[in-house]
TrEMBL record:
<dbReference type="Pfam" id="PF08240">
    <property type="entry name" value="ADH_N"/>
</dbReference>
<keyword id="KW-0560">Oxidoreductase</keyword>
<dbReference type="Pfam" id="PF00107">
    <property type="entry name" value="ADH_zinc_N"/>
</dbReference>
<dbReference type="InterPro" id="IPR020843">
    <property type="entry name" value="ER"/>
</dbReference>
<feature type="domain" description="Enoyl reductase (ER)">
    <location>
        <begin position="8"/>
        <end position="343"/>
    </location>
</feature>
<dbReference type="InterPro" id="IPR013154">
    <property type="entry name" value="ADH-like_N"/>
</dbReference>
<keyword id="KW-0479">Metal-binding</keyword>
<keyword id="KW-0862">Zinc</keyword>
<dbReference type="InterPro" id="IPR013149">
    <property type="entry name" value="ADH-like_C"/>
</dbReference>
<dbReference type="InterPro" id="IPR036291">
    <property type="entry name" value="NAD(P)-bd_dom_sf"/>
</dbReference>
<comment type="similarity">
    <text>Belongs to the zinc-containing alcohol dehydrogenase family.</text>
</comment>
<protein>
    <submittedName>
        <fullName>Alcohol dehydrogenase</fullName>
    </submittedName>
</protein>
<dbReference type="InterPro" id="IPR002328">
    <property type="entry name" value="ADH_Zn_CS"/>
</dbReference>
<dbReference type="InterPro" id="IPR011032">
    <property type="entry name" value="GroES-like_sf"/>
</dbReference>
Protein backbone atom coordinates (compact mmCIF):
# COMPACT_ATOMS: atom_id res chain seq x y z
CA UNK A 1 0.00 0.00 0.00
CA UNK A 2 0.96 3.68 -0.06
CA UNK A 3 1.43 5.73 3.09
CA UNK A 4 3.01 8.95 4.38
CA UNK A 5 6.21 7.93 6.13
CA UNK A 6 8.28 10.08 8.49
CA UNK A 7 12.01 10.02 7.71
CA UNK A 8 13.19 12.61 10.22
CA UNK A 9 12.59 16.23 11.20
CA UNK A 10 11.20 18.04 8.17
CA UNK A 11 11.31 14.92 6.00
CA UNK A 12 8.42 12.70 4.92
CA UNK A 13 7.22 11.08 1.70
CA UNK A 14 4.31 9.15 0.19
CA UNK A 15 5.93 5.72 0.00
CA UNK A 16 5.08 2.11 -0.78
CA UNK A 17 5.04 0.11 2.47
CA UNK A 18 3.81 -3.37 3.50
CA UNK A 19 0.08 -3.78 4.05
CA UNK A 20 -0.91 -3.88 7.74
CA UNK A 21 -1.90 -7.21 9.25
CA UNK A 22 -3.72 -8.27 12.40
CA UNK A 23 -1.33 -8.76 15.33
CA UNK A 24 -3.83 -9.40 18.12
CA UNK A 25 -7.33 -10.78 18.43
CA UNK A 26 -8.65 -7.34 19.31
CA UNK A 27 -7.30 -5.66 16.15
CA UNK A 28 -9.10 -4.56 13.03
CA UNK A 29 -7.69 -3.47 9.68
CA UNK A 30 -9.54 -0.51 8.18
CA UNK A 31 -9.49 0.67 4.56
CA UNK A 32 -9.04 4.43 4.83
CA UNK A 33 -11.75 6.34 2.97
CA UNK A 34 -11.09 9.77 4.49
CA UNK A 35 -8.24 11.17 6.54
CA UNK A 36 -7.12 14.57 7.71
CA UNK A 37 -3.95 16.32 8.87
CA UNK A 38 -3.60 17.56 12.44
CA UNK A 39 -1.48 20.35 13.84
CA UNK A 40 0.18 17.65 15.92
CA UNK A 41 1.44 16.07 12.69
CA UNK A 42 3.19 19.35 11.93
CA UNK A 43 4.73 19.31 15.41
CA UNK A 44 6.00 15.78 14.72
CA UNK A 45 7.57 16.89 11.44
CA UNK A 46 9.27 19.79 13.24
CA UNK A 47 10.82 17.35 15.71
CA UNK A 48 8.72 18.48 18.67
CA UNK A 49 7.65 14.87 19.40
CA UNK A 50 10.97 13.00 19.33
CA UNK A 51 9.52 9.63 20.39
CA UNK A 52 8.06 9.21 16.88
CA UNK A 53 10.64 7.03 15.15
CA UNK A 54 11.72 7.49 11.53
CA UNK A 55 9.85 4.98 9.38
CA UNK A 56 6.53 5.54 11.19
CA UNK A 57 3.41 6.12 9.11
CA UNK A 58 1.88 9.38 10.34
CA UNK A 59 -1.75 10.26 11.10
CA UNK A 60 -4.24 9.48 13.85
CA UNK A 61 -7.68 10.38 12.40
CA UNK A 62 -9.68 8.48 9.77
CA UNK A 63 -13.01 7.21 8.51
CA UNK A 64 -13.12 3.95 6.61
CA UNK A 65 -14.43 0.41 6.22
CA UNK A 66 -13.40 -2.56 8.33
CA UNK A 67 -11.86 -5.15 6.01
CA UNK A 68 -10.53 -7.59 8.59
CA UNK A 69 -11.28 -8.18 12.27
CA UNK A 70 -9.60 -10.28 14.94
CA UNK A 71 -11.39 -13.15 16.65
CA UNK A 72 -11.94 -11.15 19.85
CA UNK A 73 -13.60 -8.13 18.22
CA UNK A 74 -17.30 -7.88 19.09
CA UNK A 75 -18.46 -4.34 18.26
CA UNK A 76 -17.74 -4.24 14.50
CA UNK A 77 -17.26 -6.66 11.64
CA UNK A 78 -15.90 -6.53 8.07
CA UNK A 79 -17.98 -4.23 5.91
CA UNK A 80 -18.84 -1.80 8.73
CA UNK A 81 -18.14 1.88 8.17
CA UNK A 82 -16.34 3.32 11.19
CA UNK A 83 -14.67 6.34 12.70
CA UNK A 84 -11.10 5.60 13.78
CA UNK A 85 -10.46 7.50 17.01
CA UNK A 86 -7.14 9.23 17.64
CA UNK A 87 -7.02 7.41 21.00
CA UNK A 88 -7.10 3.66 21.53
CA UNK A 89 -8.00 2.07 24.86
CA UNK A 90 -7.52 -1.38 26.36
CA UNK A 91 -10.59 -0.86 28.58
CA UNK A 92 -9.04 -2.78 31.48
CA UNK A 93 -6.26 -0.75 33.08
CA UNK A 94 -6.67 1.73 35.95
CA UNK A 95 -6.86 4.77 33.67
CA UNK A 96 -9.32 3.20 31.23
CA UNK A 97 -11.60 2.31 34.17
CA UNK A 98 -11.58 6.05 34.97
CA UNK A 99 -12.34 6.88 31.30
CA UNK A 100 -8.87 8.44 31.01
CA UNK A 101 -8.23 6.57 27.80
CA UNK A 102 -5.45 8.92 26.73
CA UNK A 103 -3.36 7.58 29.61
CA UNK A 104 -4.05 3.89 28.89
CA UNK A 105 -1.43 1.54 30.36
CA UNK A 106 -2.50 -1.50 28.34
CA UNK A 107 -1.01 -0.62 24.98
CA UNK A 108 -3.46 2.16 24.13
CA UNK A 109 -3.52 5.91 24.47
CA UNK A 110 -2.20 7.99 21.59
CA UNK A 111 -0.41 5.29 19.62
CA UNK A 112 -1.56 5.75 15.99
CA UNK A 113 0.99 7.81 14.08
CA UNK A 114 2.98 8.12 17.29
CA UNK A 115 4.17 4.76 18.60
CA UNK A 116 2.73 2.59 15.79
CA UNK A 117 1.86 3.17 12.14
CA UNK A 118 -0.99 5.61 11.67
CA UNK A 119 -3.88 6.50 9.41
CA UNK A 120 -2.35 8.58 6.60
CA UNK A 121 -2.29 5.49 4.45
CA UNK A 122 -4.52 3.32 2.31
CA UNK A 123 -5.04 0.86 5.19
CA UNK A 124 -4.42 1.00 8.94
CA UNK A 125 -4.33 -1.53 11.75
CA UNK A 126 -6.26 -0.34 14.82
CA UNK A 127 -5.62 -2.14 18.12
CA UNK A 128 -8.27 -2.53 20.87
CA UNK A 129 -10.96 -2.06 18.25
CA UNK A 130 -13.96 -2.53 20.54
CA UNK A 131 -12.96 0.62 22.44
CA UNK A 132 -11.28 2.50 19.61
CA UNK A 133 -13.50 2.54 16.51
CA UNK A 134 -17.07 3.82 16.34
CA UNK A 135 -19.72 2.60 13.87
CA UNK A 136 -21.13 5.40 11.71
CA UNK A 137 -24.67 5.93 10.51
CA UNK A 138 -25.26 6.36 6.79
CA UNK A 139 -26.47 9.93 7.29
CA UNK A 140 -23.08 11.17 8.52
CA UNK A 141 -20.63 12.16 5.78
CA UNK A 142 -16.96 11.20 5.76
CA UNK A 143 -15.88 14.83 5.88
CA UNK A 144 -17.98 15.58 8.94
CA UNK A 145 -17.21 12.35 10.76
CA UNK A 146 -13.43 12.58 10.43
CA UNK A 147 -13.50 15.85 12.39
CA UNK A 148 -14.73 13.88 15.40
CA UNK A 149 -11.68 11.62 15.40
CA UNK A 150 -9.65 14.28 17.23
CA UNK A 151 -10.34 18.00 17.05
CA UNK A 152 -13.90 18.14 18.38
CA UNK A 153 -13.41 15.77 21.34
CA UNK A 154 -10.05 17.44 22.05
CA UNK A 155 -11.51 20.93 22.06
CA UNK A 156 -14.51 19.84 24.10
CA UNK A 157 -12.73 17.70 26.69
CA UNK A 158 -9.33 19.38 27.10
CA UNK A 159 -10.57 22.94 26.53
CA UNK A 160 -14.23 23.33 27.49
CA UNK A 161 -14.69 20.62 30.14
CA UNK A 162 -11.27 21.06 31.75
CA UNK A 163 -11.81 24.81 31.69
CA UNK A 164 -15.20 24.34 33.39
CA UNK A 165 -17.06 26.70 31.10
CA UNK A 166 -20.38 27.69 32.67
CA UNK A 167 -23.38 29.76 31.61
CA UNK A 168 -22.57 33.45 31.56
CA UNK A 169 -18.79 33.00 31.53
CA UNK A 170 -16.38 35.09 29.53
CA UNK A 171 -14.26 32.63 27.57
CA UNK A 172 -11.07 33.61 25.75
CA UNK A 173 -9.79 31.20 23.08
CA UNK A 174 -6.20 31.95 22.08
CA UNK A 175 -5.67 30.49 18.62
CA UNK A 176 -8.38 30.32 15.96
CA UNK A 177 -7.11 27.35 14.05
CA UNK A 178 -9.21 24.17 13.78
CA UNK A 179 -8.89 23.28 17.48
CA UNK A 180 -9.64 26.83 18.57
CA UNK A 181 -12.70 27.02 16.30
CA UNK A 182 -13.93 23.69 17.67
CA UNK A 183 -13.42 25.07 21.19
CA UNK A 184 -15.54 28.11 20.31
CA UNK A 185 -18.28 25.85 18.91
CA UNK A 186 -18.37 23.49 21.88
CA UNK A 187 -18.01 26.26 24.48
CA UNK A 188 -21.23 27.72 23.13
CA UNK A 189 -23.05 24.53 24.16
CA UNK A 190 -22.76 25.89 27.73
CA UNK A 191 -24.23 29.35 26.95
CA UNK A 192 -21.24 31.51 27.91
CA UNK A 193 -21.83 35.24 28.25
CA UNK A 194 -19.25 35.99 25.58
CA UNK A 195 -16.50 34.24 23.66
CA UNK A 196 -13.41 36.21 22.62
CA UNK A 197 -11.06 34.78 19.97
CA UNK A 198 -7.41 35.80 19.66
CA UNK A 199 -5.23 35.11 16.63
CA UNK A 200 -2.65 36.80 14.42
CA UNK A 201 -4.52 35.99 11.20
CA UNK A 202 -7.39 38.27 10.11
CA UNK A 203 -8.84 35.39 8.07
CA UNK A 204 -8.92 33.11 11.10
CA UNK A 205 -10.46 35.84 13.23
CA UNK A 206 -13.21 36.16 10.63
CA UNK A 207 -13.69 32.39 10.78
CA UNK A 208 -13.92 32.68 14.57
CA UNK A 209 -16.80 35.14 14.17
CA UNK A 210 -18.56 32.69 11.85
CA UNK A 211 -18.18 29.93 14.44
CA UNK A 212 -19.70 32.05 17.19
CA UNK A 213 -17.07 34.35 18.69
CA UNK A 214 -18.66 37.51 20.04
CA UNK A 215 -15.44 39.53 19.84
CA UNK A 216 -12.03 39.05 18.25
CA UNK A 217 -8.60 40.47 18.94
CA UNK A 218 -5.39 40.44 16.94
CA UNK A 219 -2.66 38.85 19.03
CA UNK A 220 -0.26 41.68 18.20
CA UNK A 221 -2.58 44.39 19.56
CA UNK A 222 -2.71 43.82 23.35
CA UNK A 223 -5.64 41.38 23.57
CA UNK A 224 -5.29 41.28 27.35
CA UNK A 225 -6.39 44.90 27.46
CA UNK A 226 -9.48 44.13 25.36
CA UNK A 227 -10.40 41.34 27.75
CA UNK A 228 -10.02 43.67 30.73
CA UNK A 229 -12.15 46.31 29.00
CA UNK A 230 -14.91 43.80 28.25
CA UNK A 231 -14.93 42.42 31.80
CA UNK A 232 -14.73 45.67 33.78
CA UNK A 233 -11.10 44.93 34.60
CA UNK A 234 -11.79 41.47 36.05
CA UNK A 235 -10.47 39.16 33.32
CA UNK A 236 -11.77 36.02 31.63
CA UNK A 237 -13.42 33.24 33.58
CA UNK A 238 -11.81 30.70 31.23
CA UNK A 239 -8.78 31.07 28.96
CA UNK A 240 -8.22 28.25 26.45
CA UNK A 241 -4.76 27.90 24.88
CA UNK A 242 -5.03 26.37 21.40
CA UNK A 243 -1.70 27.17 19.74
CA UNK A 244 1.18 25.48 21.57
CA UNK A 245 3.76 28.26 21.83
CA UNK A 246 5.04 29.97 25.00
CA UNK A 247 3.59 33.37 24.08
CA UNK A 248 0.04 32.05 23.76
CA UNK A 249 0.19 30.20 27.08
CA UNK A 250 1.57 33.25 28.87
CA UNK A 251 -1.17 35.39 27.29
CA UNK A 252 -3.77 33.05 28.78
CA UNK A 253 -2.30 33.50 32.24
CA UNK A 254 -2.45 37.28 31.80
CA UNK A 255 -6.07 37.34 30.65
CA UNK A 256 -7.61 34.97 33.21
CA UNK A 257 -9.34 36.41 36.28
CA UNK A 258 -8.62 35.52 39.90
CA UNK A 259 -10.29 32.19 40.56
CA UNK A 260 -10.46 31.42 36.83
CA UNK A 261 -9.28 28.50 34.72
CA UNK A 262 -6.54 28.20 32.10
CA UNK A 263 -7.06 25.12 29.92
CA UNK A 264 -4.05 24.26 27.79
CA UNK A 265 -4.79 22.26 24.62
CA UNK A 266 -1.77 23.16 22.46
CA UNK A 267 1.15 20.79 21.86
CA UNK A 268 4.23 22.56 23.22
CA UNK A 269 7.70 21.88 21.89
CA UNK A 270 9.43 24.55 24.00
CA UNK A 271 9.28 25.55 27.68
CA UNK A 272 6.85 28.29 28.69
CA UNK A 273 7.41 30.61 31.62
CA UNK A 274 4.98 30.17 34.50
CA UNK A 275 4.80 33.54 36.24
CA UNK A 276 4.09 32.32 39.75
CA UNK A 277 5.18 35.69 41.10
CA UNK A 278 1.89 36.99 39.68
CA UNK A 279 -0.27 33.87 39.82
CA UNK A 280 0.39 32.48 43.29
CA UNK A 281 -2.16 34.80 44.88
CA UNK A 282 -4.88 34.56 42.20
CA UNK A 283 -6.37 31.09 42.88
CA UNK A 284 -5.93 30.20 39.20
CA UNK A 285 -6.41 26.61 38.07
CA UNK A 286 -4.20 25.47 35.15
CA UNK A 287 -5.01 22.21 33.39
CA UNK A 288 -3.19 20.27 30.71
CA UNK A 289 -4.26 17.10 29.03
CA UNK A 290 -4.34 14.63 26.20
CA UNK A 291 -7.82 13.95 24.87
CA UNK A 292 -9.52 10.79 26.14
CA UNK A 293 -12.27 10.71 23.44
CA UNK A 294 -14.80 9.57 26.06
CA UNK A 295 -17.13 12.21 24.58
CA UNK A 296 -16.94 10.87 21.03
CA UNK A 297 -20.19 8.84 21.13
CA UNK A 298 -22.09 11.86 22.45
CA UNK A 299 -20.59 14.16 19.84
CA UNK A 300 -21.40 11.66 17.08
CA UNK A 301 -25.00 11.64 18.27
CA UNK A 302 -25.12 15.43 18.12
CA UNK A 303 -23.59 15.37 14.65
CA UNK A 304 -26.14 12.86 13.39
CA UNK A 305 -28.92 15.05 14.84
CA UNK A 306 -27.59 18.13 13.05
CA UNK A 307 -26.64 19.87 16.30
CA UNK A 308 -22.89 20.13 15.76
CA UNK A 309 -21.64 22.34 12.91
CA UNK A 310 -18.53 20.82 11.37
CA UNK A 311 -18.41 20.95 7.58
CA UNK A 312 -17.49 24.63 7.28
CA UNK A 313 -14.20 23.78 8.97
CA UNK A 314 -13.12 21.87 5.86
CA UNK A 315 -11.60 24.38 3.46
CA UNK A 316 -9.60 22.09 1.16
CA UNK A 317 -10.14 18.57 -0.17
CA UNK A 318 -7.65 16.28 -1.90
CA UNK A 319 -7.33 12.76 -3.19
CA UNK A 320 -5.58 10.37 -0.84
CA UNK A 321 -2.61 10.19 -3.19
CA UNK A 322 -2.17 13.98 -2.94
CA UNK A 323 -0.88 13.72 0.63
CA UNK A 324 2.30 15.72 0.10
CA UNK A 325 0.40 18.53 -1.65
CA UNK A 326 -2.15 18.59 1.17
CA UNK A 327 0.64 18.90 3.75
CA UNK A 328 2.04 21.85 1.84
CA UNK A 329 -1.33 23.63 1.85
CA UNK A 330 -2.03 22.88 5.52
CA UNK A 331 1.43 23.87 6.75
CA UNK A 332 1.20 27.19 4.86
CA UNK A 333 -2.20 28.06 6.30
CA UNK A 334 -1.33 31.74 6.63
CA UNK A 335 -1.05 31.93 2.84
CA UNK A 336 -3.48 29.22 1.77
CA UNK A 337 -6.28 30.06 4.20
CA UNK A 338 -6.51 26.40 5.15
CA UNK A 339 -8.44 25.46 8.27
CA UNK A 340 -8.93 21.72 7.90
CA UNK A 341 -7.94 19.63 4.90
CA UNK A 342 -9.57 16.28 4.15
CA UNK A 343 -8.16 13.63 1.82
CA UNK A 344 -10.50 11.00 0.41
CA UNK A 345 -9.99 7.71 -1.38
CA UNK A 346 -11.15 7.79 -4.99
CA UNK A 347 -14.73 6.60 -5.11
CA UNK A 348 -15.31 6.96 -1.37
Amino acid sequence: MRALVLHGPGESSWDEVPDPALKDGGDVVVRVDAVTICGTDLHILKGDVPEVDPGTVLGHEAVGEVVEAGDDVRSVRPGDRVLVSCITACGRCRFCREARYGQCLGGGGWVLGHLIDGTQAEYVRVPHADMSVHPLSSGVSNQDAVLLADIFPTAYEVGVLNGRVRPGDTVVVVGAGPIGLAAITTARLFSPGRVIAVDLSPARLEAARQFGADAVANGSEDPARLVRDLTDGTGADVAIEAVGVPESFELCTRTVRAGGHVANIGVHGKPAVLHLEDLWIKDVTITTGLVDTSSTPMLLGMLAAGRLPTSSLVTHTFGLDQMEEAYGVFSAAADSGALKVVLERAGA
